[in-house]
Amino acid sequence: MTTSSILLTNIHDILTGRADNGGRAAGPDIRVADGRIQAIGHLAPLPGERVLDATDCVVYPAWVNTHHHLFQSLLKGDPSGLNLSLTDWLAATPYRYRARFDEKLFRLAARIGLVELALSGCGTVADHHYLYYPGMPYDSSAILFEEADALGLRFVLCRGGATQTRQLEAELPSALRPESLADYQEDVARLARQYHDAGPAAMRRIVMAPTTPLYSVQPAELRELAAFGRSLGLRLHSHLSETVEYQQAARGKFNCSPVEFVGEHDWLGPDVWYAHLVKLDAHEIALLGQTGTGIAHCPQSNGRLGSGIAPVRQLEAAGVTVSIGVDGAASNEAADMISETHAAWLMQRARGGQDALPGYAGGTQEGGADAASIEDVVRWGTTGGARVLGLDGLQGITVGACADIAVYSLDDPRYFGLHDPAIGPVASGGRPHLKWLLVDGRIVVEDDRLPGVDIRQLGREAREAVRSLLAAA
Ligand SMILES: [Zn+2]
Question: Which of 39, 155, 442, 449 lies 20 to 30 Å from 394, alpha-carbon distance?
Fold first, then answer.
């Protein structure tokens, strides 16, 4: 054992993020060394070992966020899009503002989003980034990796992009011109060479991720991009079936359902995951399950945009791997994993209750309280996320797993009186005090603080940036 090991002692409760042992481990101590969990049980400190006293703390695996648009972190609550559904909102907020991001604003937005996530206990961030155009004066991909690196987070860049514009962008500046297919592929290949680590404990990954399969590229190109991504050993990601508009478009353009469409173009499988999947018929759920495709469930964004509630429980029963994504902050004013998992827990239950019918109308249940346990939600938000990203070293809290660990101290009155403190971080909502966040065995957050990050200063810069965005409007 190296002397650089860390011992977490006297933990009150451990949720493992795993399906075995009811999703719990007894502890009360966890030893971490060489980036891995070395032991769990009653452990005595080793000479020279750093001991972290976790008395009265609750331990979860660090969260894995599988869908985001970090540049939107300066577009929260934009009044022009606040009460609009998806398509109108896209035009009103993210598309309208995205050409105004220079390097400085973009870097600031990325930092805000990553800091917000880290302080919720998130250790891995997959960003579906689509701010690219020909002749772009800065390398937005490099900035995302730099910012995640500076904080010590795992980062998966889902390289978005489009070879054709939507009507939404028709009247917008030339900075939103689409890329050619060749340029798009060339940049994905460059990013893969520069950043992609295929290893199970990778800190950096690249994913092939055209912004939306129905609009961003021609159908033949969609198939070509799947083959190209796979030839580089990359996973595939996009948006799908977020609203009825997807159903309408697939039926109108291709006379099929959205899931049938992507299936016909090689975009289903265990190496593919989609954000949203709210509007699905039974055949689509079966197809997604049979192919082992994954979902990034984004309940807060789906709620904020009035899109609906994804049938997560039915998807999981069909064989879909479930993960949680916060989606961009332009449609989610709380883009952190605690708020998101709190919403997932409540909304799956609400959906179950919404579906309930009285017995005389054929109903068999009163409500949906069995739709999602806290352990389910923690599993979706941690090892489920690792599975869709292919980060096989992230196996939750178990011996041998990557040491990505969140330690919460439940010292706010909202948690006082809990019979089972383990459920507090997800069930009670609000942001618990993050005593430590470990990523790859290294402490990246201590007592709600990230080394090198001045939160007050970040707040001042954010307010200034919003003023400059509005002034340019
Ligand atoms: Zn999205």
Answer: 449
